[in-house]
């Protein structure tokens, strides 16, 4: 049995985003992402093989879709992004660590 806490072991400084797998099976991956003002570089897009359900647990993130649509996620907000929908993280909170919970499936 594995136990943990989403709000523990957060470094005081995050020069780079941290992607941490919490659980991985053949059909599912659960990941904690820690962002501190990080964003996807301009012109780079995620185009993932799996669908992604993602929630902001702390902080804020703005997701930009390839068609120009933007979605602001605050604490407790979530979105399901189907496989191969191109998207990027436009911005995350600069004054607090953003904690994402991402579930990849399908």
Brief overview, please?
The chain has strands at residues 18-24, 28-35, 51-58, 61-65, 70-73, 78-81, 87-92, 98-105. The chain has 106 residues and is mainly β. It has a single domain (18-105), classed as Jelly Rolls (Sandwich).
* Proportion of beta-strand residues: over 45%
Widest beta sheet: strand line-up = 1-2-8-3-6
Number of strands: 8
CATH class: Mainly Beta
Terminus-to-terminus distance: 24 Å
Low-confidence stretches: none
How many separate structural domains? 1
The total count of helices amounts to 0
Net shape: globular
The CATH superfamily is Jelly Rolls
Question: What is the helical fraction, as a range of percent?
Answer: under 10%
Instruction: State the major sheet.
Output: 5 strands, antiparallel
Average pLDDT figure? 96
| Rg result | 13 Å
List SSEs in N-to-C order: EEEEEEEE
Protein described:
With 106 residues, this protein is mainly β. It has a single domain (18-105), classed as Jelly Rolls. Helices cover 0% and strands 47% of the residues. The chain is built from no helices and 8 strands. It has strands at 18-24, 28-35, 51-58, 61-65, 70-73, 78-81, 87-92, 98-105. Strand 4 and strand 5 form a beta hairpin. Pfam families: Cupin_2 (PF07883). This is Cupin domain-containing protein. InterPro entries: Cupin_2 (IPR013096), RmlC-like_jellyroll (IPR014710), RmlC_Cupin_sf (IPR011051). Residues 48-103 form the Cupin type-2 domain.
